[in-house]
């Protein structure tokens, strides 16, 4: 198996992990998914094909989560006055210089990928809770668990806003504003 490097770490945290979180969260509403995860991770019937199938399903789910995140979270951060993050318009022509492009890649990996992780995870947790409520879990979610989920989602929201703000700040220092 290929090592985790700076080239694939961003994809793992931005897309795959939120996909795994939602896949796991959906096991409470869809027992068939529980069998997938058990076979992919258990020592009894673990196969390369089963692991690959779950990995690809989580990655695909993570990409869908990212699209939903773009639709909801990005819209909130770009248009809702109370939490708006100024993104600005930038001329990326300066990225033709190798050093500027390397610094830009660093900003993406150190801030934007974490923004994607925090906000995609927020969406995946919310989707799992909604699915559990709509499909109807075996038992109601306890008040304590709901509070923990709420606090976690609030923390993810704040962390995603901060990471996006830091990314835009770095981007503003790297690329020249559009005139």
Strand content: under 5%
Radius of gyration: 19 Å
Shape: flat
* SSE pattern, N- to C-terminal: HHHEHHE
Question: Could you explain how this protein is built, in words?
Answer:
- The protein has 179 residues and is mostly helical.
- It has helices at 9-26, 31-41, 48-79, 98-136, 143-174; strands at 90-91, 176-177.
- It has one domain.
- The mean pLDDT is 86.
- It starts with 8 loop residues before the first helix and ends with a strand.
- The chain contains 5 helices and 2 strands; from the N terminus they run H-H-H-E-H-H-E.
- Helices cover 74% and strands 2% of the residues.
Layout of helices and strands:
Elements: H1 9-26, H2 31-41, H3 48-79, E1 90-91, H4 98-136, H5 143-174, E2 176-177
Question: What are the main properties of this structure?
Answer:
74% helix; mainly alpha; two-stranded antiparallel ribbon; 179 residues; 2 strands; flat; single chain
A few lines on this structure:
The protein is built from five helices and two strands.
